[in-house]
Amino acid sequence: MRLKPALPALVAAAVLLTACGSPETPAPAPVAGTSGESTAPPSAGPSVAPTARAGLGGSGRTAGPKPPAGAAPKAGNPNGGASVPAEARGVDTSKPTRTIGTGTPASCTSEAVVKAVAAGGIITFDCGPAPVTIAMKATAKVRNANGPRVVLDGAGKVTLSGQGQRRILYMNTCDEAQGWTTSHCQNQDHPQLTVQNLTFAEGNSTGQRAEGGGGGAIFVRGGRFKIVNSTFVRNRCDRTGPDLGGAAVRVLSQFDNKPVYVVNSTFTGGSCSNGGALSSIGVSWVVLNSVLRDNEAIGSGANPAKAGTPGGGSGGAIYCDGNEFTVRIAGTIIERNDANEGGGAIFFVSNNRTGTMTIERSTLRRNPSGKFETRGFPGIFFLGARNPSVSGSTLS
C-alpha cells in the first residue's frame, strides 16, 4: 500500500490496489454450535474457528420503516457519549466558497451539484426553508486539483438521491480523468473531502466495477475523507462479488493510513454483496456516536469465493479487508444487520494479522451471521493481531 510509483505507473497501481487483501483472505471454516452473549474476550486467540449461532440465519432481518421522501431524519446516536476529536468534527461553512441554489427548490439541481463539486471548496445549499431532495442525473466527481478541501454541507435539509440508478459522489486521486496531482496518488493528503448535515438516498453503483466496485452512495480513493451528521438510506451496490462492498460508502486508501471518521451519522437499509453500510480495503475507521441498522450483505460464497459461487455475503454493516489497519467503534449502535455468510455486524480480516479493533460504550445486537462468526463475539468475524478489545459495551 505504500508503493510510490512514477506518474506513468499510476494506472497499474490503481489496478493492483483492489486486490490488495482478497487473495490472502482465509476461507472461514464454519463450526457447528452456539456462541455466548458475553462481551469478555475468549481465552483463545483470534484464529479461533468461527461458529454459527443456532437459530440465526441471514435472511430473517426485518427492515425498519422508511423515512419520508425529502426528509432529513436526525442522524446518529445522541446518547453515544464518545468524545469527538477536533479533526473529526464538522467544518465551519459560515463563509462558503460557493452556494448551490438561489433560495428555491427549483434552483437546486443535479447540474449545480456536479458543477460545484468539480470546482471544489466549501459548498453550501440555498434551496429555501423546507427540506429538499435533489435527484442526481449524474455522479458528482471531485477534481483532484481543486480544493484542497471539498466540503458539502446540507444544513440538515438536503437529500441527494441517486434515484436507484447511480452513485452519488466520487473521489479518486488515482483516476487520470479527475487529474493526477502527485507522483504518488495512492498516498497524498488531498483532496480532503467532508460531507456533513446531508442525506444520501438510493445511490446505486451496480455494474460500476472500476477499482473493484462498491460505494453505492460514495466512493473514495486517496486523500482524506470524513462523514459528519449525515444519513444514508436505501443505497445499493453489486449483489455478488467476493471483495466488493459498501452499499453506502467504499474507501480505498487514505493518506498515511489516517482513519476515515464517521461521526453522528446513520446508515440504514443498505444492501450489497459485502458491507451493507461501509466497506474498505486497507483503510482504518473511527465510528463515533453513530447508528448502523437494517443493512445486509447478500452475496454468497464468502472470500475467496467457494467453488461454484460468485462470492461475498460478509459484513452486514461493516466489511474491512487488507493488511495493517484499525477499526474503533465508540458510542455506536449496530443492530438488525445481517450477512448471508459471516459477520452479521462486522467482518474484519487483517491478512498479515497486524490489524486491531476496539469497541467502546457501544451496543451490537441482533446481527445474525448466516454461516460463521468468531466465538464469543456475536455478529463479528475477526482475524487480526489479537481479539477485539471490548469495554462498556453489549454484544448479543
TrEMBL record:
Entry keyword Transmembrane helix: no
Keyword annotations from UniProtKB, A to Z: Signal
Signal sequence range: 1-21
Compositionally skewed regions (Polar residues) per UniProt: 94-106
Biased segments, Low complexity type: 71-82
Region (Disordered): 25-106
Protein name per the record: Right-handed parallel beta-helix repeat-containing protein
Source organism per UniProt: Micromonospora endolithica
